[in-house]
Amino acid sequence: MAEPAIHTEGLVKTYGRNRGLTGLDLRVEPGEVYGFLGPNGAGKSTTIRLLLDLIRPTAGRVRVLGADPRRDGVALRRRIGYLAGDFVVDGRQTARELLTYLGNLRGGVPRARVDALAARLDLDLGRPIRGLSKGNRQKVGVVQAFMHSPELLILDEPTSGLDPFLQHEFLAMVREARAEGRTVFMSSHVMSEVQQTADRVGIVRDGRMVTVARVEELRERAVRKVEVTFAEPVDAAEFAALPGVSEVTVAGTVLRCRLDGRADALVKAAAAHTAVGLLCEEPDLEELFFGYYSREEATRAVA
C-alpha cells in the first residue's frame, strides 16, 4: 500500500489554556481530493499550519509526502503548493514580479506556465499588488500555489473573494490536478465546492475529527428539506411514521418534511398517491455540521 500523502496521529496543539487540536487523526491518500470541513475555530487552519511546520505540535506525529515537515521542511516545500486563508503579499511589487520571485525560490517556474494560469483567471500580471482588489489578490495566491505543478496542494479557503465564474475555473484546475495524479487537501465552508471536487470529506469539530466519508455517503446521510405536492390531500401521520422522516406538516395538498438519510421509504409512500411535484433542498454546510454535532452530543449523552 502506498504511503499516505498526509498522515497525522494523535495531533495536539495547545495555545496556553486553549486547545486548537485535541488528538486529530488524519489520512489523505495520494492522488485524491480531500475536503476538510468545519466551522470557524474547529481547527482547520491550525492543522494546515502544522502540516507545513509554520507552527509546531504540542504532541502527536505528522508526516507529509513521507517526510517530517520539521526535519525536511525546505525540500518538502518545493513539492507543495500552499494557499493561505489570509493570503498577504508585499504591495510594492507587480503580480509578475512577485510570482517570479516565488518561482525562483522553488527552483524556477517557466514564464509560459505563469502566463497560462493568469490568463485562465483573468489576472493582469502588470499591476502592482497594492492596486489589486481582494479577488485579484486571491488570483495571485491561486497562481503561486499551482504554478510549479506540485505533488501536493494545500489550500485554505481557496475561493474566498473569487466571483462565481472564476470559482468554476478554479474547480476545473483542481480536477485537472487530480487527473494528473496530484493530491489536493482543501479546507472550505462552501459545500458545493466539496461536492463537485472531493473524493472524501473529513468534518472536524473542536480540534478532532467527527467523521470521514466519501462525498456520496455524506450526501446520502445528510438531512434534507423535502416538499411534495399531491393531486389530493394526504394524511401527515402516514408519512411521519416513515424511517428518517420528521417534522411532517401538510397544508392543503402540499406535504413538507425533513429527511435524514435515504429517501427510499419516502419515495415509495409518495408513489402510493398521485404526486404532481417534488422539491428536495440540499442542506447548507451549517445544517450539515449541526446534524453531525447533534448526533455526536446525543451519543455522548447516552454513553
UniProtKB/TrEMBL annotation:
Coiled coil: none
Domain ABC transporter: 6-231
Gene Ontology CC: plasma membrane
Highest taxon in the source lineage: Bacteria
Family matches, as Pfam families: ABC_tran
GO molecular function, one term: ATP hydrolysis activity
Matching SUPFAM superfamilies: P-loop containing nucleoside triphosphate hydrolases (SSF52540)
CDD domains found in the cross-reference section: ABC_DR_subfamily_A
Protein name: ABC transporter ATP-binding protein
Organism: Micromonospora endolithica
Classification lineage: Bacteria, Bacillati, Actinomycetota, Actinomycetes, Micromonosporales
